[in-house]
Amino acid sequence: MPHSHEDAGSNPAPGTKLGGFPIEETLPIPQLTPAISVKHLQVFLRVHRRWQYLEDVFKQIKELGRGRIVTVTVQTDRTSIDVFRELARIETRLPTHVLTEIHEGPQILNERQNWLLSIKTLYDFADSDADAGIVWDDDWLFSKLGLREMRAHLELLEFDRIEAKWLHCWDNHQQHNALFPEHWAACLFRMYPRDQWKRLMAHCPDFVSRSPRVHRADFDIYHLGYMDPEDRRKAWEAYRAAGKIDGHSLCLVKEPDLKEIEWQ
Q1: Is 231 helix (H, G, I), strand (E, B) or coil?
Q2: Alpha-carbon dihedral angle through residues 141, 145, 148, 154, given to the nearest 10 degrees
Q3: Which end of the chain is more exposed for a tag (fewer CB within 10 A), N or C?
Q4: Could you tell me which residues come within 8 angstroms of residue 264 by beta carbon, excluding any fewer than 6 positions away?
C-alpha cells in the first residue's frame, strides 16, 4: 500500500499524549528565514518488506549526500529476514558521511503498536539538529532529473518544503497507470526547532506541512509498490478490509491507463 495516504485515526488532538510523547497546541508558522545550504540531511526511511529496492534507495541517498552529512533513521516493521540481510549488507558498504540508525520493530504488530513505535521514532527524528529532512518509503525512487534538482535544492534551499507528483509504476519500470488521481507529496523539507509530527503517515512535520512557502517540482516520484500484480492484489484486499474504497483504491482493480515513463 502507498504510505502517503494518512489515516484519520492517527491524527492526535492537540494537548494529548501518545505513548508518553506530548502533542503541543498548533504553533504558528515560523518567520521566513534566509535560504540555506544544507550541511546535514536527515532521512527517515520506512522499511516494510520490499528489500529488492533498498540498494537503489541507498544509492540515491548517497548521491544526495555528496558533500554533506547524511543521517539515515531506518524504521522497520512487519519485515522479513531478507530485509534485515539486505540492510546489513548495504550498511557495510556506505561511505563515512552516511550514518545509519536502525530501529527494529517487532515482527508482529497491531495497528496501535506500530503507530506508537513510529511516533517515538519520528519524535526523535524531529529532535535532530539537521538542516533538512526527507521521509522516504521503501518503494519509491527519484528520476535522474529528480536527483539533479534535489541536489540543487540542497545546495540552496529557499522553501520550507518541496513537493513532487507521484507516478504509480505498473507491471514494469517503463510505464505508469495514469488512472490514479493526481497526488503530490513532500520530498524535502526544512527542519525547524519544536516542529512536531501530528499525522503519522505524513511526509513532513506540522510546521512545514502548513507553510505557504512550498515549491512544486518539475520532476516525478516513481512509486514501485503497485508494480507487481501480487502487490496490487494485496493492497486492494487491505483497502477493502479497512473500508477504504475510493478513487485511489479502485484504480487497483480497474482497467489501467498506461503511459510511458522517461526516467531521465
Answers
A1: helix
A2: -60
A3: C
A4: 143, 144, 145
Model pLDDT for residues 37-78, shown as the tens digit of each residue: 999 998 988 887 788 888 999 999 989 988 888 888 887 766
Place of cell 535532530: 128
Calculate ∠ Cα 58-64-66, nearest 5°: 105
Angstrom distance (rounded) from CA 240 to CA 238: 5
- Cell numbers for 258, please give them: 498506461
Contact 208, 161 (CB under 8 A): yes
d(CA 188, CA 203): 9
pTM, 2 dp: 0.80
Rounded to 10°, the helix 54-65/144-155 angle is: 30
Task: Print burial letters for 142-174: b (CB count within 10 Å at least 16), e (below 16).
Answer: bbeebbebbbebbeebebbbbbbebbbbbeeee
